[in-house]
Amino acid sequence: MKSLARLPRTRTENLIVKELDDETLVYDLERDEAHCLNFTAALVWRHCDGATTATQAARQLQRELKSPVDTDLVWLAIRQLERFHLVEGKRQVPAVSRRKLILKYAPAAFALPLILSIGAPTAVQAASCAMGGEDCTFIPCCPGFNCDGSCFPN
Fold first, then answer.
1. Alpha helix locations (H) across the chain?
2. Are 53 and 70 in contact (CB under 8 A)?
3. In whole angstroms, what is the distance from residue 117 CA to residue 74 CA?
4. What predicted TM-score, i.e. pTM, was given to this entire model?
5. Residues 50, 89: Cα–Cα separation, whole Å
6. Torsions phi, psi of 126, nearest 5?
7. What is the tens place of the pLDDT at every residue in 126-140?
8. Per-domain residue ranges for the chain?
9. Over the stretch 94-152, which tens digit does the pLDDT of each residue have?
């Protein structure tokens, strides 16, 4: 039963978390990804302790958002949190119709959980490269160039 199912635990290892007024920024050091959780997604994420049920979380969200919330909204957020590896393990998340939720929450669309994510370049990908005539002793040549003390085109 999806209303009595317990939420997963929030992942805490290898994450840098910065809470702002109406969103939470999370940087995943393992995957080099940055995530922006809107207020609703962040609230659900904070309630992921492995003990709270979907019904309990929905009630708490309803109090915090001052807007009607049901377990479908909670499970939609959990599905997104799982997709971005922000909760531990993988659970059987009940199916939730986004279309029904959008229609249901249309007057208060801000209440829908939303996570925006971008991949950050690794240190190697972000490193500069040397171009024609530049010293390539300590940094690699850019694609299409060879190094023999200084970079020169192929």
1. 39-46, 54-65, 71-83, 98-105, 123-126
2. no
3. 19
4. 0.69
5. 11
6. -85, -10
7. 556 766 677 766 677
8. 15-120, 127-154
9. 767 666 766 666 555 556 677 777 776 655 555 567 666 777 666 777 777 777 766 66
